[in-house]
Amino acid sequence: MRLFGVEMEPKEKEQETKRTKKRKSARLFGRDLVPERKRSKIKKTRSSSPPLPPAPLPFPLLQAIHDMEGRDQVFVTRKILEQSDTDAGQNRFFIPKSEVLWGVLTEEERRRVEGGGGVEAMVVDPRGWKYNMRLKKWVSLNKVVLNSGWRKLVDDNELMAEMDCVELWSFRADSKLCFALNVKRDQLQ
C-alpha cells in the first residue's frame, strides 16, 4: 500500500489491552503506526446507594384513589423539585425519564404524548385534592411534562424547590390515566 508516495507494509500486530485483540497496524519510515483506540463515551456516575423504595402513600391520597375506584397503581418516579418546577412563570413539572411511565400508557396515549398533543390526566395531591392536567412531550426539549394545572397544585401545596421530593404514581380510574403525587418534605435522600 502506498501513502504519500511511500510504500507501507500492512501487518498484524498484537497489542496488549484488557482483552488481548489483534489490531492492524502499518509501518511508515520504519516505524509502526498503530490505530488510535476510540474512547468510550460512557458517562461516569456518582457512586450512590440504590434508590430508596417509595414511601407508603398517605391515607387521604389512598382514600381519594379508592373513592375514584382507582386500580393498577404503579410507582413511576421520584424527583427533588427544581426551581423551574415551582417557578410562578412556568406552569409545568418536568418528569424525569422513566421507562415505567411509557409502560403504563396505552398505545394511543403514547402516540398522542409523543406527537406533542398530549393526553388529559387527573392528578391527585397528598390531601386527596384533584387537578386536571395534561401529560405531554415537549418535542423541542425531548422532555415529558405535566402542565395545565400544575401551578395551582404547587400553590395549594406550598411546594418548594430543593426542599420537596415528589413521588409520582400512576393509576387508572374508569380506564382514564391518573397520577398520585406524594410529597416528602425534610426527608430528602
From TrEMBL:
Q: According to its UniProt record, what is one Pfam family this protein matches?
A: At2g31720-like
Q: Which residues form the TF-B3 domain?
A: 120-185
Entry's Gene3D superfamilies? DNA-binding pseudobarrel domain
Q: What is its main location?
A: nucleus
Alphabetized SUPFAM superfamilies for the sequence = DNA-binding pseudobarrel domain
Q: Which residues cross the membrane?
A: none
Q: Where in the cell does this protein reside?
A: Nucleus
Q: Which UniProt keywords apply?
A: DNA-binding, Nucleus, Transcription, Transcription regulation
Q: Which GO terms describe its molecular function?
A: DNA binding
- GO CC entries: nucleus
- Superkingdom per UniProt: Eukaryota
Region Disordered: which residues? 1-57
- Family matches, as InterPro entries: At2g31720-like, B3_DNA-bd, DNA-bd_pseudobarrel_sf
Q: Where is the composition biased (Basic and acidic residues)?
A: 8-18
Protein name, please? Answer: TF-B3 domain-containing protein
Instruction: Specify the species.
Output: Vitis rotundifolia
